[in-house]
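User: Can you model how zinc ion sits in this protein?
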Amino acid sequence: MKKRRRLKKKIRNRLILAFGLLITLFILITLIKGIVGLFHSDNKTMNNEKITEEIKGSETLRKAGMSEEDIKEMTSLPNYHSNRAKRYAKWKAKSVKDIVMQVNCDMDLKPYSKTTIVDDDSDMTLLVNKFYALPEGYQPSDLVPLEDYACVQGEDYSCQTVEQIEMRKEAYDAYVKFCKVAAKNDINIRAIAGYRTYEYQKGLWDYYASVNGEEYADQYYARPGQSEHNSGLAVDITFNGYNFNEIENYDGYDWILKNMHKYGFILRYPEDKTDVTQYGYESWHIRYVGKEAATKIYKNNWTLEEYHGSK
Ligand SMILES: [Zn+2]
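Assistant: Here's the modeled complex, given as structure tokens:
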């Protein structure tokens, strides 16, 4: 009897020990999982969210009657945004690629029907157009007065302003470099307008809106915060004393078109891209975006909208 009791006790003790070990192991695993999860949970949720979004996007495209083949092509494009699926589904273009690019460029929207405020001005490729606006009262903090290569009133035919022309420092440095090289090729570039204040644009737009109506004002003047001149990264130019809005007809203009990207500038409103920019052709309005972006835009024959729309 004693032997049996001792054996029972032994078994019970072993069982308790095994059970205790199991619980300890369970607690340890849970703890480790929790700690690992702390570091990974964000990523996992983001991935899951992205997948859910993509599925939602595909569903929208399917409901709109798009073929499975097109859906597959569209959703695998690097510049496809699932939150724009509804707009992609509505928009008609030659190819799936074109649909995505054109909607990304807001070509499906009416001017000023959507406004995104551009808060970060550290990116030289920042977009200012009929859908992207600088904040109310925006003024760049690094404006520099243009000493050289600025027009002189009374001397230059196209000189519009007696005020000091200003640009943001990085754009200014690039502009001066560009003009120096151009001058060596007998192309004497002069700026006729640079930075314009938010208040200036507001005064202009408000005036024409009150006199001729908003539609008229929108047709000829950018809304406050939506003129590229407010960014301090745009400059209107002429050269060799020509009338600024005829420079495209003179020798030297071709050189400007082919070389300005090397200094970070692009022609902002090309003649063959008015449907993308939603602006008329402006041969004189150039915009600083930095060398890398300018080269990419030049080589792909893009506008700044398409540069952003390709992402
Ligand atoms: Zn301009």
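A couple of observations from the model: The two ends are 83 Å apart (CA to CA). The first strand starts at residue 116 and ends at 117.
User: Helpful, thanks.
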